[in-house]
Amino acid sequence: MSLKKEYFHFKLNKENNDVKRDSFAKREFDTISYILKQFYNVDLKKGFKILDLGAGDKFLEKIFDKNGILYHSLDIEDLDFEKDKFNFDDNQFDLIISLAVLEHLKNPDIFLQESMRVLKKDSLLFLSTPNWKYCKNSFFDDVTHVKPYTPESLQQLLEIKGFKEVMTMPNLRCKSKKWYQGKFRFFKAYYLLPFKGDTKFISDFLKGKSKGLFAIGKK
């Protein structure tokens, strides 16, 4: 393959990956926005200050910036979530999000204490993690997973750490309110949505199968 063709394929793949990345970020933003509005009557609005814990490559930064929300982040290159304090003053943030981080921490005490400290009064912590009840056979396939949670255990943990109005729900994306609530919400999200969200040639009505959970708590 010529250098020109190699460059073309590289550029095309990069553009495709950027489109997928932006689409995924918008999906996350829309889901978080919807859940906060529906269940806590909170609008993600211009001027909000948010902290993304475990931000990775900061793929959410662009979508928050686009909506006028002040984005800050911390990850493992910045600190040890199990030992270090966050380098922010008290009562700084309107929202903290942390997607797929908690299961990697042997001891979440400092992580949650610091989250509580830097949140403003009545502001929210939004977490996602695998749901042990539906991923027992695969949870430890990821060697970095060290601590599993059920909806009940995570709710208890957040309440012990002082969070109020704690809610747990399936980590579905962009579904109607009925999918996030009710006694059998986790069962429905796993068994009544048989296909993953990225499955091709399947109606959206049947997609979204969830093995994970969201947990939200208010300071």
How would you explain this protein's 3D organization?
This protein is α/β, with parallel strands linked by helices and 219 residues long. Helices cover 34% and strands 20% of the residues. It has 6 helices and 6 strands. It has a 6-stranded mixed β-sheet with strand order 2-1-3-4-6-5. The chain starts with a helix and ends with a strand.
Mean pLDDT: 89
Strand/helix succession: HEHEEHEHHEHE
Radius of gyration: 18 Å
- What's the architecture, going by CATH? 3-Layer(aba) Sandwich
Percentage of residues assigned to helices: 25-40%
Q: Regarding CATH, which class? A: Alpha Beta
Strands side by side in the biggest sheet: 2-1-3-4-6-5
- Provide the domain count: 1
| Total strands | 6
Regions with pLDDT < 50 over 5+ consecutive residues? Answer: 1-12
Global morphology: globular
CATH superfamily name? Answer: Vaccinia Virus protein VP39
Largest sheet: 6 strands, mixed
Number of DSSP helices? 6
CATH topology: Rossmann fold
Overall structural class, as computed from helix and strand content, comes to alpha/beta
The share of residues in extended strands comes to 15-25%
Distance between the termini: 58 Å
